[in-house]
Structures are given as C-alpha cells and as structure tokens.
Amino acid sequence: GFFNVYSFPFASGAITVIYFMIFESSRGASFGKSIMNLKVKTKDGSNVTIEKAFIRNISKLHPILLLLDLAAGLVTSTDLHQKYSDRIVNTTVE
Question: How many C-beta neighbours within 10 Å does residue 75 have?
C-alpha cells in the first residue's frame, strides 16, 4: 500500500510542514510557541509570509532533515534562535 514504514515519516512530515506553515504565517506562532509566548518574525520584525514559513519548516518533512537543519544552525551561527533554514529566509524565533 501507499502508507508503509518508509512513507509514513514523509506523510506525517508533510502534515507537520503544512501545520507550521499555516499557523506561523497567519498567527506568527504554532500552538506550542503560543504557550511559550514565542513568535516567528523576520529579522526586521515583520510577519512571516507563507513562503518563508514553508522554507523555514521544510526540514520538518523528515526527522533526519530536521536534525541536520538544527545541527547546521548550531555549527554555523552563534544565534541560538535560528536554525539553518531560518538564516536562509532571515527569520528568528523570539
């Protein structure tokens, strides 16, 4: 079938990317970020567009991609509020 042990991480990842894309572009935060009083903004303080939200969250498509995104952000920057994909679209979590 279409859903098997290999496709499941990508299928659930696609749903995750869509969730974060919609909430971060429309409200500035996912449910969890709202609870923690955090917001996703561009470095100039403006709201995140749906395109930027897509790019910053595409690594959530698969757990290994997310791990690489986080690791690359830590290794290449001193700003702990940015993963690597955040730097690509000039966003941060405050």
Answer: 8
Query: Are residues 61 and 14 in contact, defined by beta-carbon separation less than 8 angstroms?
Result: yes
Crossing angle of the two packed helices 50-57 and 8-26, in degrees rounded to 10? 140
| Contact criterion met (CB below 8 Å) for 94 and 43 | no
Question: In tens digits, what is the pLDDT along the chain, a chain of 94 residues?
Answer: 556 767 787 888 999 999 999 999 999 999 999 999 999 999 999 999 999 999 999 999 988 999 999 999 999 988 888 999 999 999 999 9
User: Helix and strand tally (H, E) in the chain?
Assistant: 5, 2
Q: Hey, is 40 helix, strand or coil?
A: strand
What count of other Cβ atoms lies within 10 Å of the Cβ of residue 61? Answer: 17
Amino acid 73 reads G
